[in-house]
Each structure stands twice: as structure tokens, then as C-alpha cells.
């Protein structure tokens, strides 16, 4: 009988030896089963019953779904058919068991205080009596926290080294680093593991570079920590000569006219270069001015 006292199986066996075995199949999964054996004489006279209680193993759970935040994880699932008594949940990180929850009656479990950007595996067993169903597992990364305090460690004419601070409580750090020059339209990007610095080489001197670093997982990316820095300039001097002619006498030697032309030239350079590359404009008075 099942735990509702419904008959699931009944058979009469004629035996000639002292022991007898009966295979009972097609029983429902995850069910408390009561088995009684009674001796019969002439098919009508019954002896006392001998009874044993046991369980059929439950089937696997289904629809195991994980949702994560930076430091927490929630697992939810659907129970198998049958009267499952409880669930056992294991939380693993890199092959090691972090937590075990037993006698869970609900079809969900919340874990907090987890590491950020870490790949956690949740394993759920359905339990019927003392029997466990097949394990069902799913893995997912907690969301990554962004690195902080992005800064320049060193600079030369052709290379820049940046440093940053890892997020708190991170298990295995993986970062995406990016360097960009708007003037030269350079875009460099790399991924690095378990380091908090990176050196970009073969850069152009006297150039402003924008740097950003993000924490990454298999399918998630954090917000960026950003900073900027200029490579040291390799200075060169370029002379520009301007010839002025005018029908008005002495107009070209008027200081206001010359200053106006110089400021227009400066405005032009600002529009072309702004702060994206090193430049400096200086006015040199000619000896004849």
C-alpha cells in the first residue's frame, strides 16, 4: 500500500521452500510503501501479518534555475512526481562544497555572503525517506563588482602602466583592459587574469590615452573604472612664417592685428588637437617687427 493506504500490488504465491521472493515493480516514485506478508492455509486461513515500511526512490527535480547578484544566489526548481519529503541542496565553488542544506521543504534556496564574480554550482537532490533521487546541477557566476582606484603607475614616451584595486571578496579575478587614443584612433583591448596592473607598449609619444578596466566573467561585465594619462612628449619645433601685405600703410605692423592673427591660429590648433596630443604655440617676434 502507499501512504494513503491504497493497494498498489497484491499476489498469492504457492511456495515449496522456506523462503520466497517477490519482485514488485511499477510503483510510484518517491512514495512511502507498506508491504505486508501473510501466510495462508488452504487459501482461506490467514496467519499474522509481517509488515515492513520503506520508500521508493524519488525522481530528479526539474527546471533548476539560478539567479545571481554580486554577493548572493537564489536557486529555484520544480519537484518530481510523488510525495517527496524534502530536498538536499549543495553549493559548490571550484569543486569544493561550501554549504549543504538538508531537510529543505521549499522548492527554492537563497545563499548570501558569496564571492563576487565566482562560478558557483548548485546541486539539488530530492529525498524520499532515506533515499535520494538523482542529482541535478546548474552553475552560474555571481555578478562582478567593478575594480576601483584606476591610476597611472608609470609613463614613458612609448608605454604606460596602469594599476587598479580588485573588488572586495573576489574569488578568481579576470579583467578586461582597454586603452584608447581619440587623436590617432587607437583602440587596444586585452583580458588579464589575477593581476591588478597592465603595461601598454609601442604607444605614440605626447598622446593622451584613456584607460578603463572592467571585471568580467563568462557572460557578465561590470562597470568600468577609468582614468587617463599622457605619454611623455618627444618634442620637435616647427616654425611657421606668415607674410602680411596690405594696401593700408603700416597695417601689418599693428600689434593688435598681429595679436588677432595669432589668437586665430591658437583657436585653430585648439580645434584640431585640444588635449589629445602634446602641443604648444609660442609667438616669436621677428627682429624687424
From TrEMBL:
Keywords: Receptor, Repeat. InterPro entries: ECM_Regulatory_Proteins, FN3_dom, FN3_sf, Ig-like_fold. Residues 57-145, 146-235 form the Fibronectin type-III domain. SUPFAM superfamilies: Fibronectin type III. It comes from the Eukaryota. Transmembrane segments: none annotated. Pfam families: fn3. SMART domains: FN3. This is Receptor-type tyrosine-protein phosphatase beta isoform X2. It comes from Lates calcarifer (Barramundi). The lineage of its organism: Eukaryota, Metazoa, Chordata, Craniata, Vertebrata.
